[in-house]
Amino acid sequence: MKKIFSSIICLLLLTATISLPAFAAEKSTELAADAKSAILIERDTGSILYDKNSHEKLPPASMTKIMTMILIMEALEQNKLSMNEKVRTSEYAASMGGSQIFLETGEEMTVEEMLRGISIGSANDASVAMAEKIAGSEEEFVDMMNKKVKELGLKDTKFQNATGLPEKDHYSSAYDMAMMAKELLRHENITKFTGTYESYLRESTDKKFWLVNTNKLVKFYPGVDGLKTGFTNEAKFCLTATAKKNGMRVVAVVFGAPSTKVRNAQVSKMLDYAFAKYVTHPIYKKGQSLAEVKVSKGDTKKIQSLTSEPISVLTKKGEKIESIKKTIKLNENLKAPVKKGDKIGTITIKKDGKVLAKSNLIASKDVKQAGWWKLFKRSFGMFNKTN
């Protein structure tokens, strides 16, 4: 009898051990049940609100263009490009298939027009034309893309082209794509493009081209203003979406949904969940000056450190933020030359020892190396002060 009783107890314990993880897995996948992988984050803090296989390496299709747009926006920010600058289309760029704006060899469009083609119409030809404009060739541009991946600390991504067209060893993950979206959204002007539902190119010609956003949630979900869809036969239906409501911005990523309808429904469900459960508390705006940093051997002795992005604290609705601690760490060995936008420090916000937010602080302006005469006069002045 004891043996039978012991056997029953062991069987019950074994059943419990097996069934509990299965129940937990079912609960954790209910927001994106039909996607291969998914993630939901709050943009300012990067906090993960929902996760399903977010580090699985999968083909990202045209969501690749999020990184393409990051490098375009960086070039604009660094004054290497201007929105009105003309971009000539090469024969190679014009030969791209898939989604396109039907650029002809030798045709010129402005950077602004090319960016509209990429962000609204997912144009492969415009993506390659911009890649060649920035780096000289798509191959060199892909090197820049992968260097940026490493700079962002991402582990699940490798790019082979600027478009997302099928190619061996071209992959990313939901987590990495969310972090790339977070980076792209630092450039606040990008949503003027990604959040536009329809536009036109070549308006003054007989080849007027109608652009309609491939992300239908821009029109049908209040607050959605980006970012990028993707589809290939291998990748299935993918979407990295962002929405802002009541001051909180979130990013939802879905890989491998079986249809556009399912993809949009699951992303909408994720966004609904975020806005129903969470709220952000703004701490600093982007570009806010926090502290001075000394610059060694520069034509300016000190420089302001600025916030590189909006900084917020995330809580569940109803929770208060109290006793938060802000720690600013500056580069104590900063030497000229310094470029505007260079990382020169960090700010960390903690509560009860837990990191709630961490962000880079950047240089407010360029600082050139001081000439020998200026350095001499500065040293001579210091010598006089000490005597």
The value of Rg in angstroms is: 25 Å
What is the count of structural domains?
2
Oligomer: single chain
Q: Proportion of β residues?
A: 25-35%
At the third CATH level, what is the topology name of the largest domain? Beta-lactamase
What string, H for helix and E for strand, traces the elements in order?
A: HEEHEHEHHHHHEEHEEEHEEEEEEEH
Structural class, from helix and strand content? alpha+beta
The CATH architecture assignment of the largest domain turns out to be 3-Layer(aba) Sandwich
| Largest sheet data | 5 strands, antiparallel
Helix content: 25-40%
Mean pLDDT: 89
Signal peptide: 1-24
EC number: 3.4.16.4
Pfam families: PBP5_C, Peptidase_S11
Function: Removes C-terminal D-alanyl residues from sugar-peptide cell wall precursors.
Structure description:
It is globular, with a radius of gyration of 25 Å. Helix content is 34%, strand content 27%. The strands form five sheets. The protein has a five-stranded antiparallel sheet, sandwiched between helices. It contains eleven helices and 16 strands. The longest helix has 27 residues, at 2-28. The protein has helices at 2-28, 65-77, 91-94, 111-121, 124-135, 138-151, 174-184, 190-194, 217-220, 260-277, 372-385, and strands at residues 37-42, 48-52, 86-88, 108-110, 198-201, 209-212, 224-232, 236-245, 248-257, 278-284, 289-294, 302-307, 311-316, 324-330, 343-351, 354-363. With 387 residues, the protein is α+β, with helices and mostly antiparallel strands. 42% of the residues are buried. It is an enzyme of class 3 (hydrolase). Its EC number is 3.4.16.4. Pfam families: PBP5_C, Peptidase_S11.
